[in-house]
Structure formats: C-alpha cells, structure tokens
Amino acid sequence: MKKILIYLTVAVFLSLGFSNVTSAAGNSTYTVKSGDTLWAIAKKNKVTVQQLKSWNKLTSNTIKPKQVLKISSTAVKTSTAAKASKTTQKARAYKEITVKATAYTASCKGCSGITYTGINLKKNPNAKVISVDPKVIPLGSKVYVPGYGEAIAGDKGSAVKGNKIDVFIPNKQKALQWGSKTVTIKVYK
Q1: 83-94, pLDDT tens digit by residue?
Q2: Is residue 65 part of a domain?
Q3: How many CA atoms lie within 13 A of 69 on its CB side?
Q4: pTM of the model
C-alpha cells in the first residue's frame, strides 16, 4: 500500500511537472526502461551525464523504469517557465518544526527493510525517506531536512514520538556518523 502511494505521488509530480514540456518541446523527455543507465541515455541523446543530473535535479546516478527524464535544455526552459508561473500563482507553503533527528538503516537484525508506507529500502537504497510521528508530520508529506535534503515521510517507528524524526541512511557507518541532531525542518503542505 505504501509503495503504491509513493509511486502515485511521484507519478502526479512527474505528470504535473512535465505536462507542458512534451507539447511545447516535442521529444525532449525520455522514459527510462529497465536496464537503462544515465550514461547510456546521455550518450544516445548526445548530452553529458552531468547535464542529465542537473536538468532532472538528480543527486545520484540511480534511475528507475518509467521515470521520465528531461533530455534537453529546451525541456528545462519550458519546464522552468511552467513552474515559475505556478509558483507565482501559489507560493510553496510549509511549516517549520524543530525536531531531534537521528538515523536508521534497513540492515538491522530482524528488519524487513519495508517502511510503514510500503517503500522497500533494501531495493531502493537511495530513497530519501524519514520516519515520523504521524500525529506531528502526516505520512506521505514532503519534508526538507537540513543536511539530508528533500524526503518523504514514509515510515513510523515506536521510538519516533513527538518532534523526532529518523532519516534513512543505507550505510550503517554513515547512519552512526549522522548521530543525533536538533534541526529545523520544513514540512510542505
């Protein structure tokens, strides 16, 4: 159920973000197929991997089948114009919350790696997911965490109560390095 919610959320964001791109820019997007890599897509479209990452705001080389990528600067200009008009119409509303942030991994003994909302963290180690108290931050919310980036509130835990979050970090050593921090996060409405 959680996995479906995340995929639907991503699909909505992609369809809204790219709806004007396809019609205005022609063939300036690419739908990722199973087995594709950023390098192969870049080579095929005579662009660099860095350009693809920049145009699509990717922080890693991980892509997923059915993901729609911008493959030209025309798509970026058209998409940016569409986003700018939406932004001026309605500012991105959020609330700030000061929380204690710790980290967790999916590789602990007895852990399934499946979040409460159904995200498989073992199969998606680059997913930006946080564990929250749903009474404070609703599950499915988009959240910005300083030092971590934008994430989805996709999990909850018995130790996550009140103004506390757990950020998912796939590497146990890096999760331990995260430690415990007090940060002010943005929860987007």
Answers
A1: 554 544 456 788
A2: yes
A3: 29
A4: 0.52
